[in-house]
Design brief:
Helix content is 30%, strand content 25%. The chain is of the alpha/beta class.
Length: 131
């Protein structure tokens, strides 16, 4: 299995998540592809690196995003249309991604069955719209 890790921050929360992921992967035949700035900041060794979406291998099975909303959005820009699932670990102040409450129109549509989420598209009964 190949796992890519992306984070802008290098604080203790990020270090703890990475440490736990590495510990869980011992003896599991997992290779890691680490964002180059994160790799340098944490002084990691023995992993392959990537700088942007062009460097990210299409064979990656999972992308781990560690940070806040901005980090998650940058992760989407790196993954793009490669079809790699993203596992986010959110830290910091709740902002964009936490605003989906039961009163939000999109959540009401979801509960009523009028919204179906597909990779890269949001479908309402009346039209398709690219995300």
């Amino acid at each position: 299995m190949k796992i890519a890790i992306f984070s802008i921050d290098t604080n203790d929360d990020v270090k703890n998540v990475i440490d736990k992921v590495f510990k869980l992967s011992i003896n599991k035949n997992i290779t890691f592809h680490i964002y180059s700035e994160l790799y340098k900041s944490l002084r990691l060794k023995g992993h392959s690196l990537y700088n942007n979406h062009l460097d990210l291998h299409t064979e990656v099975d999972l992308m781990i995003s560690i940070g806040g909303d901005g980090t998650f959005l940058r992760t989407l820009g790196i993954v793009r249309d490669k079809g790699i699932p993203i596992l986010p670990f959110f830290f910091g102040l709740p902002r964009l991604t936490s605003r989906l409450t039961n009163r939000t129109p999109i959540m009401r549509m979801s509960r009523s069955g009028r919204l179906k989420i597909n990779p890269g598209l949001i479908r309402t009964r009346s039209r398709w719209r690219s995300c």
